[in-house]
């Protein structure tokens, strides 16, 4: 994102005014922070009593295990939804009308249904059909149903944005239709869409927290709640620690997505690719 | 099919609660998001830092975590709202960073030369902001904002996690009671499809309407 300013660089008088404003807002902010801290201390948020359970290593083990469970579900979900997404993308760019329409209906429907509804669906309906899987698989299947649709559409737009010469050349060289897709178009599409795919991984990771509702899979939010049940005085502290855990993983993934996007843009400026590849990748929740 | 009609009342109620969350979420997040975007583009460093911190924190903590923290954590500090308003507030807090980033990227699309031209023509800074920059920036932002709000419609379902009786929550309850949960889920999915489609259509209509100022 270009960070050009809309305004001319400030002159000496404006700079002075900005400095005064900065000091004033800084002071106001510090005052506010102190007030909040004082109130929190009065409520006993920082009291040794509330943080005492955190001295036990077993508690950290529980929290760490929770975070690992989140990461595991997101990782397995991502691998499966990449596979589903590739198949869907092949359907979406297929020359067969029926296959194309079918894939389109699937992507449109499943990308607009809330993940939580899918999670309820997998956990309630699948056991009726004899699929007695654990809560982990219910979560992963729900994630795959949703994310596969989104990734399918992403890969499709990556394939469509490639210059037509790519597939023409591959076909002229004697690649089959499938070979063209799998060996020529798909790798390029995956590479150009890699920042968006990492953004989707962030969405998946956030979605794993929904497994809280199943209760049978101790992900981070659930383990924080469990801690809160044993140590009622430290529920808020445990939830805070859980939130920080999610925050750190997501920020790291966000940094990865940004660096991938920068690399992508560098590659594009080196070898100019045709217009139409939208460089503005906004992460939507 | 008959099953769905029998529960039309339940679905209607669920849709109404969900719609309420969408409306409150939209109003709140557009106000908070605009403020955050303004702070982020301000020349005052403290304001920029505050906005960046807010965006970093609230965008990266998953909505379910924020919801649960808000509903089950904060009452420990004697901060308590009704379930419905806590869900709406958490939704606003979570959606606002996405709105802010979208609006800010819209501000960046306005060419600086246009502002220079308007100054050369004698427009005051605020007037050129009002007549030149904002109309263009907001016009480019309508479509991406529409996507943000389509996502928000789906995110209202997270309120079911803390027990707000919206569409997903009612669906789950009905599906547990009924013999054929498949149909219930299908009905609920159709409701969400229609809601998402309606928001998308509204966004597209607005986009056409503002297309001239782009």
From TrEMBL, chain A:
Transmembrane region positions? 20-40, 71-93, 105-124, 136-155, 196-215, 235-257
Query: Which superkingdom is the protein from?
Result: Bacteria
* GO molecular function list: transmembrane transporter activity
- Biological process GO annotation list? amino acid transport
Q: Where is the ABC transmembrane type-1 domain?
A: 67-257
A Gene Ontology term for the protein's cellular component: ATP-binding cassette (ABC) transporter complex
Q: Which residues form the signal peptide?
A: none
Q: Does the keyword Cell cycle apply?
A: no
**Membrane topology, record value:** Multi-pass membrane protein
Q: Which UniProt keywords apply?
A: Cell membrane, Membrane, Transmembrane, Transmembrane helix, Transport
Family designation:
Belongs to the binding-protein-dependent transport system permease family.
The family database entries (PANTHER family) matched by this protein are listed as:
AMINO ACID ABC TRANSPORTER PERMEASE, MEMBRANE COMPONENT OF AMINO ACID ABC TRANSPORTER
Q: What is this protein called?
A: Amino acid ABC transporter permease
Species annotation: Arthrobacter wenxiniae
Automatic annotation (TrEMBL), chain B:
* Taxonomy, superkingdom: Bacteria
Query: Which residues are in the ABC transmembrane type-1 domain?
Result: 15-203
Pfam families, per this entry?
Answer: BPD_transp_1 (PF00528)
* Gene Ontology biological process terms from the UniProt entry: amino acid transport
Q: Which InterPro entries match?
A: AA_ABC_transptr_permease_3TM, ArtM/GltK/GlnP/TcyL/YhdX-like, MetI-like, MetI-like_sf
Where is it chiefly localized? membrane
PROSITE patterns listed in its UniProt record: ABC_TM1
Query: What residue intervals traverse the membrane?
Result: 15-39, 51-75, 81-100, 148-170, 182-204
The membrane topology noted for this protein in its Swiss-Prot or TrEMBL record is:
Multi-pass membrane protein
Instruction: Supply the alphabetized keyword list.
Output: Amino-acid transport, Cell membrane, Membrane, Transmembrane, Transmembrane helix, Transport
One Gene Ontology cellular component: ATP-binding cassette (ABC) transporter complex
Subcellular locations according to the entry: Cell membrane
A single GO molecular function term of this UniProt record? transmembrane transporter activity
Similarity field? Belongs to the binding-protein-dependent transport system permease family. HisMQ subfamily.
UniProt protein name: Amino acid ABC transporter permease
Organism name = Arthrobacter wenxiniae
